[in-house]
Design a protein that fits this description.
Blueprint: E1 16-21, H1 36-44, E2 52-54, E3 65-67, E4 70-75, E5 82-87, H2 101-112, H3 121-127, E6 134-141, E7 144-149, H4 156-160, H5 168-173, H6 178-183, E8 191-197, E9 201-206, E10 221-226, H7 230-238, E11 244-246, H8 250-258, E12 262-264, E13 270-276, H9 287-296, H10 299-305, E14 311-312, H11 335-344, E15 353-359, H12 369-383, E16 385-391, H13 394-403, E17 415-421, H14 425-433, H15 451-461, H16 466-482, E18 486-491, E19 496-498, E20 502-503, E21 519-520
Parallel strand pairs: 1-10, 1-11, 15-16, 15-17
Antiparallel strand pairs: 2-3, 4-5, 5-7, 6-7, 8-9, 9-10, 11-19, 12-19, 13-17, 13-18, 14-18, 20-21
Helix pairs in contact: 9-11, 14-15, 15-16
């Protein structure tokens, strides 16, 4: 039924790109998108900008932060908790209203101030946990914003890059209703939303007045279609109902290539893990069981299952990463060593550890979660860890992640399969394991708390020199791996399949992508 509304390719105007997403619905369009990184990719950084954006122009080097609605930002030399952002002049929202420092204050209030008229619980659920450093903020003048952090925090720019700026004027115009705003949103981004049909499609047109003239889209139209089932995405691509699909199933890649479809891959800052609960009673509180699980997974076998579309994890960060360091524990495939560790803990295949893990059938960055988790389930059973799965929809899993492993909604699960954006110190490390970010105060789902790790995190925040900060981050990663704090399985290569008519796409080493340079041949 979903695809019946899509016209055949010949009926579309030249320059229309139709994308089959893994999401089961159109991500939230009001600014702070839901549906994880995929939501931000398609309805965040398209319709909106942050004060700080990502440079998505290169396929050959890692993405770095770049000026967005702010042209510069810096911490005060004498007070590292005080940051000054100089804002871009002459920028207008899609509704024609001006962008100013007051606009930013209004947007931060919509996420952080529960008593503000514009406070939106849905956007706050997505955005509040992204900016835990922020204590206060004010407009100094129309082009200057001041942000005060709770403590000195060198990771603030990375946090701010998650916050998208919506138009206060448009919200007023549509009756101060975020539901109404979702249908006709106004940001400052390179795309304008022109059609919003939940669970069916969204359409966007270029913002011809976009402030970055080099990134005014070349396409006539961008169409987003929710297609959570992998084989349905392939069928839609083959039949010409979409031009591009996210995450093609590995068993379809060879035949798609044979049919002249293009398969695009690239390394990017992403890992695929099980996040382990450290709440009272969790079996994962025993390091022997955590290490045994990491030694039980046949990652090379999984890679073969995925047609080569993964990098086997040797840690939380990918091999060769600048923060990898020199951990002494290596999560390789050694089932005999796993059995020995479990025997020391009092378990065996005849007397297994028994527990429950939450998984989703699809979702942003989740790769091919059902077959991958089946491999893990079988591998763990062979050494003495019996896993029962509870399968929930991706957005539900995100809500469970925000709720924490101690919450009743987590259904007594002690693990959660989650793919993580690991591009910066905060989202890559700190948010997962800092003591005071335990859910629901943050996204430390497992309620892990170790003063030694917190001390390292404090050093990261207080090291404003990038090279010196990298040395601290190496120590953080070594502790992640040596203490086997996650079940570390894979790093994605972000495969996409697309029609050969799609031209000009540069797959950045990032969760987010720039659709502006793309054209589609007729």
């Amino acid at each position: 039924m979903l695809l019946s509304s899509l016209a055949p390719a010949g009926a579309l105007a030249q320059g229309t790109l139709r994308i089959g997403m893994t999401a089961s619905d159109i991500p939230l369009t009001t600014g702070q998108a839901d549906n994880g990184g995929e939501g931000m990719r398609f309805t965040g950084y398209t319709v909106y900008d942050g004060l700080i954006n990502w440079d998505l122009s290169s396929a050959t080097k890692p993405s770095v932060l770049a000026p967005g609605l702010a042209t510069s930002w810096e911490a005060d030399a004498t007070d590292k908790t005080k940051w000054t952002f100089k804002l871009r002049e002459g920028v207008t929202f899609h509704d024609g209203s001006p962008f100013t420092a007051e606009s930013v204050v209004w947007n931060l209030d919509k996420l952080l101030k529960t008593d503000s008229p514009q406070f939106d619980p849905r956007q706050s659920a997505q955005g509040r946990s992204r900016i835990p450093a922020v204590a206060s903020y004010r407009a100094v003048d129309p082009t200057t914003l001041e942000v005060i952090t709770k403590t000195p925090d060198a990771t603030l720019p990375y946090q701010i890059a998650w916050i998208m700026i919506s138009s206060p004027t448009q919200w007023e115009k549509v009756g101060k209703s975020w539901d109404a705003f979702a249908k006709t949103p106004a940001g400052t981004g390179p795309w304008k939303l022109t059609l919003f049909a939940p669970r069916e499609r969204a359409e966007m047109a270029p913002n011809k007045e976009y402030w970055d003239k080099a990134r005014i889209p070349k396409l006539d139209k961008l169409v987003l279609v929710p297609l959570p089932e992998a084989n349905a995405r392939v069928a839609a691509l083959r039949s010409g109902q979409v031009d591009w699909i996210e995450a093609p199933p590995p068993d379809a890649v060879a035949s798609l290539k044979g049919a002249k479809f293009t398969i695009v891959t690239n390394a990017y800052p992403h890992n695929w893990t099980w996040h382990l609960s450290r709440a009272e009673g969790s079996p994962w509180n025993d390091i022997r069981i955590r290490k045994a699980a990491n030694l039980a997974v046949d990652r090379e076998g999984m890679k073969e299952l995925l047609g080569g579309l993964m990098i086997a994890a040797e840690g939380f960060m990918p091999p060769g990463h600048q923060w990898f360091g020199k951990p002494t524990f290596k999560p390789t495939y050694d089932p005999e060593a796993a059995k020995k560790l479990l025997a020391e803990a009092g378990y065996s295949p005849a007397k297994p550890v028994t527990t429950k893990v939450l998984i989703a059938p699809s979702g942003s960055g989740q790769m091919q979660p059902l077959p991958m988790n089946e491999v893990i389930q079988q591998n763990l059973a062979e050494v003495g860890i019996k896993i029962d799965f509870e399968v929930v929809e991706w957005n539900t899993l995100i809500n469970l992640w925000r709720g924490g492993s101690k919450a009743e909604m987590s259904r007594k699960a002690t693990g959660m399969n989650f793919s993580y954006f690991i591009q910066d110190p905060f989202t890559g490390f700190i948010r997962h394991l800092q003591c005071n970010l335990a859910a629901p105060n943050g996204t430390n789902w497992g309620h892990y708390c170790d003063p030694e790790m917190d001390k390292l995190f404090d050093q990261v925040r207080n090291t404003f020199d990038t090279a010196e900060q990298a040395k601290v981050l190496e120590k953080v990663h070594e502790k992640y791996v040596n203490d086997a704090l996650f079940l570390m399985v894979a790093h994605d290569v972000n495969p996409r399949a697309m029609s050969p008519k799609v031209k000009g796409f540069v797959q950045a080493q990032n969760w987010f992508q720039d659709f502006s340079p793309i054209t589609v041949e007729k």
